[in-house]
Specification:
This protein is of the alpha/beta class and 255 residues long. It folds into two domains: 102 residues, D-amino Acid Aminotransferase, Chain A, domain 1 (2-Layer Sandwich); 123 residues, D-amino Acid Aminotransferase, subunit A, domain 2 (D-amino Acid Aminotransferase, Chain A, domain 2, Alpha-Beta Barrel). The chain is built from seven helices and eleven strands. A hairpin with a 2-residue loop joins strand 7 and strand 8. Helix 2 runs antiparallel to helix 3. It is globular.
Length: 255
């Protein structure tokens, strides 16, 4: 899908994040490396507001931009109103249209080890599930719909179908590749690969979006940006994946 072929009414921008009442206590224990607001139960809350704001600015949605530039406390209060039980963990999807109308879709989410929400160490944890990471067999052309998170996700849906990922609950991911053969991102995650004793993640110039956990990982020096060719990925290679609902996930390349 191209930006020129889509009217503002035909898609919305969104960001998905985790609400977890146990997060503030855990974040305080990682105060030196976890960004403000550390007392919020919303994972990387300020980063999600920034991400939506950047998307609204890109698409020149002035009304949406005006709504998104509210005080962070007011933004959190807006999210609170969508949660029926503040004692449980939830997956939230904040959706905003071109007119600045916003809604929050909430779904229960499984309990996780809260340590997975913070920058991972270099050692692995055998008890954690490992996702199978496939490489898309076709390329995706970068656009505003890959640079920013929108509901126009046909390219990502097709990539997941080609990889045989049929359910959001599958412990599997597919890496989206641009026409130059560079890894852009995962369909629902940011990937990280170990090169010369350092974790690297695709640069935004490859066409992927600036995910919230990606920003967190870069800010803490966990990784560097570096172009990654699909041809250099090796079957059985271990990697990390991350997103705003699950945090950091171990993966292994399946080719």
């Amino acid at each position: 899908m191209t930006e020129n072929s889509s009217s503002p009414e035909s898609f919305e921008i969104f960001s998905s994040l985790r609400f977890d009442p146990s997060l503030p206590d855990a974040a305080c224990r990682h105060a030196s490396s976890y960004p403000d607001p550390q007392k919020s139960p919303y994972y990387l809350l300020a980063y999600h507001q920034d991400r939506l704001t950047a998307a609204a600015a890109h698409f020149q949605w002035d009304e949406a931009l005006n709504w998104l530039q509210q005080d962070l406390q007011d933004f959190e209060a807006f999210l609170d109103a969508s949660i029926s039980d503040l004692s449980k963990a939830w997956r939230l999807r904040i959706v905003v249209n071109s007119k600045g109308k916003a809604r929050v879709e909430t779904n229960p989410t499984a309990s996780i080890d809260l340590m997975s929400l913070f920058i991972p160490s270099l050692h692995t944890h055998p008890s954690e599930p490992i996702w199978h990471v496939h490489v898309d067999t076709q390329s995706t052309t970068p656009s505003g719909f890959t640079t920013h998170k929108t509901t126009a996700r046909d390219d990502y849906t097709s990539a997941r179908q080609r990889a045989g990922i049929n359910s959001p609950t599958d412990l599997a991911e597919v890496l989206v590749v641009n026409p130059d053969g560079e890894v852009m991102e995962g369909s629902i995650t940011t990937p990280y690969f170990l090169r010369d004793h350092m974790w690297i993640t695709p640069p935004l110039s490859s066409g992927g979006n600036a995910g919230t956990t990606r920003r967190y990982a870069l800010s803490q020096g966990f990784c560097l940006e570096h172009t990654i060719s699909r041809d250099e990925l090796v079957d059985g290679e271990e990697c990390w994946l991350s997103n705003g609902v699950r945090g950091f996930i171990r993966g292994v390349i399946v080719k």
